[in-house]
Amino acid sequence: MRIGVPKEIKNHEFRVGLIPASVKELTEQGHAVLIESGAGAGIGSGDDEYKAAGAEIAPNAAKIFADAEMIVKVKEPQEVEWKQLRADQLLFTYLHLAPDPAQTIGLMQSGCTAIAYETVTDNSGGLPLLAPMSEVAGRLAVIEGGYCLKRTAGGRGVLLSGVPGVEPANVVVLGGGVVGINAAKVAIGMGARVTILDRALARLRYLDDVFGGRAVTRYSTSHTIEAELAAADLVIGAVLIPGAAAPRLVRRAHLKSMRQGAVLADVAIDQGGCFETSKATTHDDPTYDVDGIVHYCVANMPGAVPRTSSQALNHATLPFTLALAKHGEKALEMDEHLMNGLNVKGGRITHAAVIDALGENPSLNAVSEK
């Protein structure tokens, strides 16, 4: 198969779909890999390193989209990219379609077969291609949230760890999944006081065992959320419903009870956000203020640490990339977990959660409020 990797064009997105080690694996198995010139610059891998791995260097993205049978990316295609996709192409990348009717319509009109990293599953019911970026984003959310708590950044002027004689910051994590547990690890490691909310009792028991009393676990209800928000310095939004729009757990009315200068970091923003007041931001302009509460809602947080992120992502995606390269669309029939990643095919939405959010025939005003 002929596999193409364009340079990512989303704001401050420095990751790359295939690292040189993955290219070598593919070319050694007889596949052709076409890399856009400069695509690996963000991870410190130049064109010569890709050539040494067996790749062909393309002068621009147009060449990639024109020649490749499968496009491998990191972030969802932007309009200029989805307009270049064809009905005979596979697209393998993060998509996050539920809150994005424009992209969904674009992919449907292209006729391509679009497979989303974030809905590929595994035998344990997990999301193995989402997990590595969730790990990165969860850890970064605390680092970035701690930065935003500085008075010079618009925050309360609180140090996460405190100092002897001064209490640490209160960090509240909404959701005890991969994002939540990684956020809690870093927050605890930095000396913060951490509370994790979740609705799965088995998960709360697991978290209680893992952290050994270093984090408080609470069953998530509207009452407990309101109570924790009132005392929070930093709130990490870490909820996920696979493939679907994120539930809005924090309403604007809740902000009135929060401490002025507190920070909301919404890691669920790719799926529409779990705070009512969330809107996607960029690394160029990452925060904004609503009612005195700082919001950090960067939609591609792991893009800030592309070396770590690209390696971690490729370690997870490579087996699936190899299967698609070898078998094409038949790989979907051969692997039910890869089939779960199929979101759009032949002009139709194929993933139930996306249909639930947007309907079978989405319009540009079809963003779900669920």
Summarize it.
The protein has 370 residues and is an alpha/beta fold. 35% of the residues lie in helices and 16% in strands.
User: Shape, please?
Assistant: globular
Mean pLDDT: 95
CATH architecture of the largest domain: 3-Layer(aba) Sandwich
Estimate percent helicity: 25-40%
Question: Strand content of the residues, in percent?
Answer: 15-25%
Distance between the termini: 40 Å
- The secondary-structure element order is EHEHEHEHEHEHEHEHEHEHEEEHHHEEH
CATH class of the largest domain: Alpha Beta
Number of domains: 2
Total beta-strand segments: 15
Class from secondary-structure proportions:
alpha/beta
**CATH topology annotation of the largest domain:** Rossmann fold
For the biggest sheet, the summary is: 8 strands, mixed
Rg over C-alpha atoms, rounded to the nearest angstrom: 21 Å
Q: Would you identify the regions where 5 or more consecutive residues have pLDDT less than 50?
A: none
Please list the strands of the largest sheet in the order they lie side by side: 3-2-1-4-5-6-14-15
Q: For this structure, what is the CATH homologous superfamily of the largest domain?
A: NAD(P)-binding Rossmann-like Domain
Please count the helical segments: 14
List the SSEs and their pairings.
Elements: E1 2-5, H1 20-28, E2 32-36, H2 47-52, E3 56-58, H3 61-67, E4 70-72, H4 79-82, E5 90-93, H5 101-110, E6 113-116, H6 131-148, E7 170-174, H7 178-189, E8 193-198, H8 201-211, E9 215-219, H9 222-231, E10 234-237, H10 252-255, E11 263-266, E12 287-290, E13 293-296, H11 306-327, H12 330-334, H13 336-339, E14 342-345, E15 348-349, H14 352-358
Parallel strand pairs: 1-2, 1-4, 2-3, 4-5, 5-6, 7-8, 7-10, 8-9, 10-11, 11-13
Antiparallel strand pairs: 6-14, 12-13, 14-15
Helix pairs in contact: 6-7
